[in-house]
Amino acid sequence: MNLQQLRYLTALADAGSLCGAGRCLGVSEPVLSRALRALERELEVPLFTKSGRRLVLTPRGAEVSEAARRALEAVDEVRISARSSSESGSLRVVTTPTNGMVLNRLLAHVVRLWPDVALTIELADSHAGVMLRITEGECELGFEELGHPSPDVKTTFVTTEEIVLVSPRGLQLPSSITYEDLDGLPMIMPATSSRRRMLNEWFTRIGVRPTPALEADDRSAWLTAAQSGLGSFISYRSLVPSSSLPVDVRSFDPPKRAELGFVHRDEPLSTPAMMLVEAGCAPGAWMLSA
Hints:
Elements: H1 3-15, H2 18-25, H3 29-43, E1 48-51, E2 54-57, H4 59-85, E3 90-95, H5 97-113, E4 118-123, H6 127-135, E5 141-145, E6 153-168, E7 176-177, E8 186-189, H7 193-206, E9 211-215, H8 219-227, E10 233-236, E11 247-265, H9 271-281, H10 285-289
Parallel strand pairs: 3-4, 3-5, 7-11, 8-9
Antiparallel strand pairs: 1-2, 5-11, 6-10, 6-11
Helix pairs in contact: 1-2, 1-4, 5-9
């Protein structure tokens, strides 16, 4: 038995299905099912049963789930106590590579205000990876695109980013584009499977099929490729350097924006974490640090 299995069990109790629990945890249904079956075998107790196409807790499973919840709360109290007694002034923040570039603008401001705080920035390749490190307690704060609610995770909005299309100069496209304009367009895309999958899922939702022109995770390669006329890519407007570069930046019609903010477990934050969240919410913080 391990903490991960207990978290999976309580997530299933809260969500009412493997599908819902998997979405909350950023874990696939087969992984959840295997872990919970292993827990059943170890405890020699049936924890859940099928109800149609869903898995629901048995009465004994509900009892075990409540005991697991109490055990997890006790572990969380240990973590909180350790944080509050720590004098290191350290903070671990997890984000994705793209959102990390936005976060760097704020961090430069924070480092000037509180030079004694030791910040460690860890990168995950997807939203699910960020949420997993938060829910497992590996990192205290995450910096994420909001809009993916999860139980026991609190969010704090800090800034809005416009999502734009960056293209080679002179491309025959309207000044403001619609989703349909992306259909068949040569595109520069991430190479990492999870990041690429998220982008492909978005293309599927909006009903377009761009043409892959380059696969690379290094965003500097994206800009170079766009400058050379190889293809276009999706970006936050603030991450596109000077307009003097040989690329065109187009807004979507209607405009597409992402709300970014901090995510953390529903528990008291350490002093460094509170300092960072408060700095992100302060008026003018992002302009000062840009």
